[in-house]
């Protein structure tokens, strides 16, 4: 089958795995089995139209690349936000600071409720 | 528009908000001041000001929109720069659809409809279409590849419709689009971003490109997509509300924002070069969920575009732009979970240098869209505490029987005055929208006639009043969990194929806490503070009824029954454009196809990619050719032998994806499967090969016709 694909596609120099893949893709794209049901693996008489359709059929998932850069520029968050960001990052580096803050908030809430209910 | 006129518009708009909020605050302060104001009452007043300002903003937008629409439209809108029917030149445009594990049938049938629409407009030569996939589920990935191939065959789309699958989905959707721009961006002048559930007609796309060509200082034009194709009662009510109310609201927004508009991430056109130069997103301080990569990229990209001096417009009056609503309340909440996390991150950017004031406002309103929920809950709870405290202390005075405004007394209880004023701001915009629509008989007919329109509006208002406290509880949870750095896990929906709507177990598990909270809260109020219970009853009702409401509104059958009764009809349902009719017809054909055989369903994609000669070849042809190291080669060799011997159930998703990404392994697996003796294969593969001749090997989609 690989040799037959190589003949039809005129790709005799390719590794046989690639020919097998290219051949099946070409068959899929040109609807070969539906339109020329008797042509598959026929070594004696390959219809010219079929061979042409096989040769032009290939998958092109994307257009030619036009590579360019898209680089993030840092956003100046302003002094307050930058200070907050540094604080947050410090909390992430020192988890014990976050725990202490949560405890402080809890104690403050308890004190506020105590005061409000007296 | 000259700066002076724009400033005048903005002054009027925001002064109206301040005025209304000031008036309401007067009443509220007067209510709280009677016994001397406590610290708790000050906090309540402060929360009231924030929440009322939020309501007043929506009201003023609608009011201004009502004025604009009934005046015949805003002369200062972007679409006015093109004369009707003008055949302005076009330029190269890429239409991109980033997807992540979406329903392949929906994506590609949607693309077919858009492609055909542009083709019918005879402007296809200016457009290329890209599906940008980040799917990491093998079934989705293979379905996409096959659907793309078949669609291109059917519409002769090779060379026009492209498919790109990223190996590493870095930075989610924003990263997906950025990756596209880095590879192919320079080939195009404009970029139109669509979501997987978006539809844009050829006419709308062409109009957008023409507007960009006519207005070279514009960086982004955002359309106002209409909700369409909803089947469930929830989706239909959302679509109805969107169709009826959003034209006024958006006209009001455009009135004051003009070239300082916002970008919503889809159904919009972008000028490629300035976007690439200025709108690549940096990371924020800290890590997710509150820091790290920017999740809600759209607002920030609009702000960066404006910062660089390019205009961002809302073209609210362009027809032919559609999207779908989440089908159920729970699906909507899942989406809100992601958006909440993304919008809270914008807090970092409120004081960013160089941002325009309007963009800071957009970011702030995005944050408030979610933060207002816990503030509202806190307001209700503190109000309850205050009422209970006064009652317990015996210092509660009877409510004033008159309302005093600047020394004049009106014979109406003050609390009722404030309540009526608040209700006026909440519901008058809806009444104005209905009234505005009633003045256009042809349009009223498309809503089912005046009686049905009015009844539908009333029922929609009732349903939104009941959903409001449910969404309040959801959003409060999302905000709290995000601030605490926690994710929110969802109970996976075990939906049967033929099941209509939310599973009742999921509804109970999702809304259970809300229901219990509502019952306990309501009962305690009824016993301890019956007067306060009356004020709170709409909120309590929504919470207590959350499970049945969620279930009822999730049913497509109920949605259909409502349609049969002529309720919640929209012009997109009664007089749908050709594109939506075609899409619905095609999707009906898709979903009639048989599902894959049950034992093979979980790994159907992998099965086809290994077993089917065509799908295997196509999949390999689409893979990038790589030269793996010797170590990797050995690992793959062991992996693929195990796959044939043990079957895919023994593999993790990561291992399956790794094999699918390796061309050499896919070629080997296909050859071995068809040549090795059956006793070497796992039972799963033997079953797959037996079924291959019984069921069609192609994925179940109407693309295969």
Which helices and strands, and how do they pair?
The complex is a heterodimer of chains A (118) and B (705).
Chain A lengths: L1 H8 L6 H14 L2 H4 L12 H9 L22 H15 L1 H22 L2
Helix pairs in contact in A: 1-2, 2-4, 5-6
Chain B lengths: L2 H31 L5 H32 L22 E7 L4 H17 L6 E7 L4 H18 L5 E5 L6 H13 L5 E4 L5 E2 L1 H13 L3 E6 L2 E2 L5 H25 L10 E4 H7 L18 H11 L3 E5 L5 E3 L5 H17 L11 H37 L9 E3 L2 E3 L3 H25 L2 H6 L3 H34 L20 H25 L1 H15 L1 H8 L2 H9 L6 H4 L3 H14 L6 H4 L2 H8 L1 H10 L7 H17 L6 H8 L2 H13 L7 H10 L13
Parallel strand pairs in B: 1-2, 1-4, 2-3, 6-9, 7-10
Antiparallel strand pairs in B: 4-8, 5-10, 6-8, 11-12
Structure at a glance:
The complex is a heterodimer of chains A (118) and B (705). Chain A has 118 residues and is mainly α.
Please, could you describe this protein's structure?
The complex is a heterodimer of chains A (118) and B (705). Chain A is mostly helical and 118 residues long. Chain A folds into two domains: 55 residues, no CATH class; 38 residues, no CATH class. Chain A has six helices and no strands. In chain A, α5 packs across α6. The model of chain A has no long low-confidence stretch (mean pLDDT 80). Chain B has 27 helices and twelve strands. Chain B has a domain of 95 residues. With 705 residues, chain B is of the alpha/beta class. About 1% of the residues of chain B have low confidence. Chain B is globular, with a radius of gyration of 28 Å. In chain B, α1 runs antiparallel to α2, α3 packs parallel to α4 and α3 packs antiparallel against α20. The longest helix of chain B has 37 residues. In chain B, 61% of the residues lie in helices and 7% in strands. At the A-B interface, α2 and α5 of A face β3, α5 and α23 of B.
